[in-house]
């Protein structure tokens, strides 16, 4: 039998792909989705289109990793050895108070079809639609950031599980809403830029009752017990239902993805208020299996050095589920900006003669 050169090349390529599938035990295309092979912060719908970061060893995105070996991640993934890694312990007494426009949640109160996946490291929820997507802006973020996916971190018991610590306190779990800077078009492209990613971190704290929104998610864990299993969420949830009641009190700092390749591209927003979940719900997380067929838990990275990073604390009391109109936001931004001098404004106002009737020295306090 005579083969043309092009046929030989095809045979070689197909054989190579089959070999890779055999080695990895999963389809090659799945491998390139980086669901399991790189880190769960990556949007599973986004394929890697170009070469990895310069500081990532070639091909390292596809290397396996696990939490037991987190001290050695930096031997394979250079970025994991950086100075601006996450998670960190947040010391509230050292946080600098800062005012900023309120954090705005766009399309967080719409429901979409969602998929849930067990990737062996966590449970990921992503939207299975290409329509308009949720986004965030304000709250000290430089741009608008589109929702990519959300996932969870939890412990073997409820005394541990969160990635970040507040004043050395570890919570029972942590929920991450991962967003990418909309100007980069996709999560994969955004991870190559310092202002590429924004993650909202929400602590999970044990309480006496089930968390309603979470119950729709954990109720389907029986369908994704094994690694690589995906299912469609049957009861649509609103993303805002997984947010804490107070979304305007939070800490901010600059850090990294908390899983390999640990790129230092994340603007972290860590909410002060936790959401409450039940022990029963956390037990359902612990029934999932990892790649080795063991129970999946303690999927949090150890605390990293902050290396003197500035942590800011933002507080407010307004809650938005819909974005403001741009003219509304502009007015709000102006009044909260340093250009606005409230003292001068009230001294100047044309009704100042009324003040004289009450107390001429008193400056109205509208805060
Ligand atoms: Zn995470």
TrEMBL record:
Residues 1-25 form the signal peptide. Pfam families: Carb_anhydrase. Residues 63-315 form the Alpha-carbonic anhydrase domain. The keyword Metal-binding applies. It catalyses: hydrogencarbonate + H(+) = CO2 + H2O. It comes from the Eukaryota. Its EC number is 4.2.1.1. The keyword Cytoplasm does not apply. Reversible hydration of carbon dioxide. Its cofactor is Zn(2+). This is Carbonic anhydrase. It comes from Daphnia pulex (Water flea). Belongs to the alpha-carbonic anhydrase family. InterPro entries: CA_dom, CA_dom_sf, Carbonic_anhydrase_a-class, Carbonic_anhydrase_a-class_CS. One of its GO terms (cellular component) is plasma membrane. One of its GO terms (molecular function) is zinc ion binding. PROSITE patterns: ALPHA_CA_1 (PS00162), ALPHA_CA_2 (PS51144). Keywords: Glycoprotein, Lyase, Metal-binding, Signal, Zinc.
């Amino acid at each position: 039998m005579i083969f043309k050169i092009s046929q030989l090349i095809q045979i070689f390529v197909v054989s190579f792909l089959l070999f890779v599938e055999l080695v990895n035990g999963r389809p090659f295309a799945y491998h390139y989705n980086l669901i399991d092979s790189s880190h769960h912060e990556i949007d599973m719908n986004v394929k890697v289109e170009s070469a990895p970061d310069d500081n990532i060893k070639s091909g390292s995105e596809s290397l396996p990793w696990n939490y037991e070996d987190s001290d050695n991640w930096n031997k394979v993934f250079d970025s994991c050895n950086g100075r601006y890694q996450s998670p960190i312990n947040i010391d509230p007494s050292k946080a600098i108070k800062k005012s900023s426009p309120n954090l705005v949640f766009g399309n967080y109160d719409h429901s979409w079809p969602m998929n849930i996946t067990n990737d062996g490291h966590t449970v990921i929820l992503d939207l299975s639609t290409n329509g308009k997507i949720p986004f965030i802006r304000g709250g000290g973020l430089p741009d608008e950031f589109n929702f990519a996916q959300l996932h969870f971190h939890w412990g073997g018991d409820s005394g541990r599980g969160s990635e970040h610590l507040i004043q050395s306190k570890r919570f029972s779990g942590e929920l991450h809403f991962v967003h990418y800077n909309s100007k980069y078009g996709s999560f994969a492209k955004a991870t190559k830029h310092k202002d590429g990613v924004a993650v909202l971190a929400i602590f999970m704290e044990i309480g006496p009752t089930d968390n309603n929104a979470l119950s729709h998610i954990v109720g389907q864990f029986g369908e994704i017990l094994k690694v690589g299993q995906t299912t469609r969420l049957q009861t649509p949830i609103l993303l805002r239902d997984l947010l804490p009641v107070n979304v305007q009190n939070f800490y901010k700092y600059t850090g990294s993805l908390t899983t390999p390749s640990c790129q230092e591209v994340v603007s972290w927003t860590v909410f002060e208020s936790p959401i409450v979940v039940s022990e029963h719900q956390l037990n359902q997380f612990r029934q999932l299996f990892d790649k080795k067929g063991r129970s999946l838990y303690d999927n949090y990275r150890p605390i990293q050095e902050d290396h003197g990073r500035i942590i800011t604390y933002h507080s407010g009391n307004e809650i938005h589920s819909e974005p403001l109109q741009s003219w509304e936001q502009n007015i709000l931004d102006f009044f909260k900006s340093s250009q606005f001098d409230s003292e001068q404004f009230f001294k100047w106002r044309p009704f100042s003669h009324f003040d004289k009737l009450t107390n001429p020295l008193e400056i109205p306090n509208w805060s």
